[in-house]
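From the pipeline queue, job 12 of 40. The input is one protein chain; the requested action is below.

Action: predict structure.
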Amino acid sequence: MDHDQFVAVVEQVAGVDRQAAERATRATLQTLAERLSREEARDLVEQLPPELGPWLFTDRAAERFDVDEFLGRVAGRAEVDLLAAERHARAVLTALARAVGAEEFADVVAQLPRDFAPLLPRGPAVEVLPVEVFLGRVAGRAGLDV
């Protein structure tokens, strides 16, 4: 998926114009980069169009914050209200899932708390993992034996 296709998905899912989709993409990816480990952010950069890379670049450790803080940051960056920020974040995460594939997106989701679930894409384009596989991946990332 190239940059234009990524933004087009955001436009379609969020129901916004191109300019708003670009702002939503930038705001959501920048905020997501603050929540993810440096390694995971780098993994995403490698799989996304080069135009999106700078928004995911981080040299800081992952911050721990919940979905309300995430949406507040997205809203501030995109200069929209919280309802729009939620719609925009959901659209960007849908585009992200389509762009990087199921396995990489599962790695991203494994780093997010459960309260992010309403923002995550659902439907036939999203692979639903068996609970054992999902827990195995989470345990592996956490360095736990299962």
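Job complete. The two ends are 35 Å apart (CA to CA).
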